[in-house]
Amino acid sequence: MVRAILFDLDETLILDHPVSLHALRSCAFYAASWYSLDIPRLIQTAEQTSVRLWKSSPVFDYTQRIGHSAGEGLWARYEVQTHPALKTLHDWAPAFRVAVWNESLAEQDIHDDALSEALAHRYLSERRLYPRYPEVDALLKALTGYKLGIVTNGVPDLQREKLEGSLLQDRFQAIVVSGELDIGKPQPGIFEHICQELEVDPAACVMVGDNPERDIAGAANAGMKSVWVERGFKPKDPQHKADLEVTNLLQMLPWLEAQ
Questions:
Q1: Maximum Cα interatomic distance, the chain, rounded to a whole number of Å
Q2: Cα–Cα–Cα angle for 222, 152, 140, nearest 5°?
């Protein structure tokens, strides 16, 4: 019998990639108000450059372990420092953000340090939107009677900011963030931790997420059933097969009743 439903956060309950793209577009159009440039090319270059430079971070291995991405590094505050690596990121990230725009603009023969600084700050503000997927409210209302939890990878203050900004933080009985535990999905420890908080056995839990490698494989390793929601950003992985596949979270309700 299923007693608890656990959710991933980004791209499961709240939009992530579309908001990042919005912020990149805003920055690119701002740059284009000063210089003649190829906007789609600037956006693509900025995405690629951020990933490349992120790999040179002095704590890249740590970010991989807790599931913190280059895109998040463009706007995380790193004010909650539960691990020494977060202090390193706090000090390193400002130069990283400016370097992303310096190199992306230079790819189009634009060299303007002041503009790169402005774009780094603009992204910080433009990215701070936290829209929920449209079916989330109806889903949570329908799940009355289940214990609800969130298992999310990322740094503490950024993931908590997303929860507060999306007005989701008070709708779950337990929330675990990889950066607070120093354990990230798909490691079993983060799933074991939320089971202890909810006082449920893993076999009585269903994990819902969009990432086959982290959410679906992690659930299987922890002895949980899983639901994969296809949002169009993570491809299906036949190596990590979920118990149910959906494109809208409401589609999981009949399956849950059958469990």
A1: 61
A2: 95
Q: Which amino acid belongs to residue 3? A: R
Dump the DSSP string for 104-170.
HHHTTT---HHHHHHHHHHHHHHT---PBPTTHHHHHHHTTTSEEEEEE-S-HHHHHHHHHHTT-TT
CA atoms within 13 A on the CB side of 208: 28
Return d(Cα 72, Cα 123) in angstroms, integer: 11
Kindly indicate the confidence band of residue 259, based on its pLDDT and cuts at 50, 70 and 90. Answer: confident
Check: CB of residue 7 under 8 Å from CB of residue 175: no
**What is the pLDDT averaged over residues 50-78?**
97
CA separation for the pair 157, 161 (Å, rounded): 6
Asked if 70 and 54 touch (Cβ cutoff 8 Å), the reply is: yes
In CATH, the number for domain 4-15+131-258 is: 3.40.50.1000
Q: What is the pTM of this model?
A: 0.95
Domain boundaries, the chain: 4-15+131-258, 17-126
Contacts 24+ apart (CB under 8 A), 243-247: 243/206
